[in-house]
Amino acid sequence: MVGRETLTILGERRETWVVDLQRTTAPGSSEQVDRLRRYWYDPVLGTWVEWAERFHGRRNVVLTFSYDAEYTATLSGFTPG
How far lies 54's CA from each of 14, 22, 37, 48, 77, in Å? Predict the structure, then answer.
């Protein structure tokens, strides 16, 4: 957990816990990956309410190419179990 942040989720302001996961490959491999995932957890709802990912990869085979992705998902509905 890297901190707390207030987000507007389902039309309400909610205090969330912010969790970061970082993955980076060791230097020297043919494929290099740098990935950061950030999750926002609402302890009152007991679920993740948002998450985002930033991804950069590079592969050296016969040719070198790289690829990038960045996206965010936000909770848009919730039915308690």
Answer: 24, 10, 7, 18, 24
The DSSP bridge partners found for residue 78 are none
pTM of the complete model: 0.78
Is the C-alpha dihedral spanning 1, 39, 35, 54 positive or negative? negative
Tokens of 70: 């960045």
* pLDDT tens digits along 4-45: 999 998 899 999 999 999 999 888 878 889 999 999 999 998
d(CA 9, CA 77): 9
Residue 44, token pair as written in the block: 């009152």
**Nearest Cα to Cα of residue 40 among 1, 79, 80:** 1
DSSP string, 42-68: ETTTTEEEEEEEEEEEEEESSSEEEEE
